[in-house]
UniProtKB/TrEMBL annotation:
Coiled-coil intervals, chain numbering: 286-334
Superkingdom to which the source organism belongs: Bacteria
Keyword field: Coiled coil
Species name: Nocardia bovistercoris
Biased composition (Pro residues): 248-270
Protein name: Uncharacterized protein
Amino acid sequence: MAPGEQAGWLPVVWGRTRRADTWWRVLPAALDSEGWIGEAVYAVFAGGRDLERPRFTLCRSRGWWLTGVACAAADLDSEMHTDENGRPLFTFVGWLHTLDQPAALPTLDQWERHRVEWARGTYARWCGMDWEALPSDVSLPHESVAEPVGWSSNAPALDGAVLRYRPGRAELRPDSERYTLWQAGTRSREPFLLVVGWSARQSLKAPHCTHATVADLSATVIVQAQVDGLDLDADDRPSADTAAVVPFRPPAPSPPAPASSTPVPTPPAPASTARQRNRWLGLIPGTASARDLEQLEQELTELREQYADCRREIAMLRDRLERGERDLAALRARVDGADPDPTSGGTG
């Protein structure tokens, strides 16, 4: 192991091969590819959309840390980067570490400077095993084996902001805030999924993450998110003996209340806080700003687009169902000895 490398991390690689349109290359045996890990990888990979530049993720969910990069396969390997038809491929390479053991997390600055160095060996190893295999031979992923990673031990500040998940909502911020968000993630003790590196806001119609940074944003935007599969409501806080995974400094105790029989009035919440609380409760504030109106109109536009997409998908599924029922009826008729095709020329 090279100086500074961290052991105990399990590789996760998502990327198709030259011949086979199957994508899981390696995954820990304890995880189901259809579970939260699949949702997390999709959140950063997103079908290869808007990957002109790499995206990075830091996620805490279901007792695991996940960190990795989604990028063009050509960035990592000079040969394994197109399919048999010459189309360019994209991939996700990352690592998982259980919360049961202390783990040093990479900084975003380290990821940006060393992503190729860190990811190319893992990509070459696990994609190389299947690159020329037939589709029938690569239906299941390989089982992850712990390997050293390139980042050194990092000790984030013990106090400061953390990332908090608001159910059903994703917080999109300007790309200039990516380092602040990442550092907050390393301090977090609650589930979250951060993706940094999106180029365009229009690419995130319904983000599958809790926090993201976008290059063409100039201010924070709150949007509807799709994170049901991440089990982000689960209580996966570490036990006392594993608290070192995410350093945390508890707040100072409140001073004792003054000895008085007169109750101390609670100060009213600032107007901005009240508006935000009303927003999460689904209430319409008494006074709304132009920004509130703009954000609500944007959310409604996205909901309409999602609704239209669902209707198109339902129509396609209905058509497939009807075709399947016709095929089933025809097959049943053949099995029963009848001829379902009146033009087949059977004898009367």
